[in-house]
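I'll show an entry:

:::
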Amino acid sequence: MLKIRLRRMGATNRPFYRVVVSDSRLTPKGAAIEEIGTYDPRQNPPQIKIDAARVDYWVSNGALLSDTVRQLVGRAAG
């Protein structure tokens, strides 16, 4: 099963996240199928860049959004 979820990047106490499509059976650090966005919570306001067309494509192919990514997509759209 495919999931769209966050992958934590960045240094200690300086988080930066990539929004990736990956196999749910693998760890979040495992190989990703595609990177479809970024999220930087350290900016003011937090910077969210997500390719909505790719999210729609992957969801139509059966990928599930994690709860956090679902919220981020909602914030990025509106």
Summary: The chain has a mean pLDDT of 92. Helices lie at 52-60, 67-77. The beta strands are 2-11, 14-23, 34-40, 47-50, 64-65.
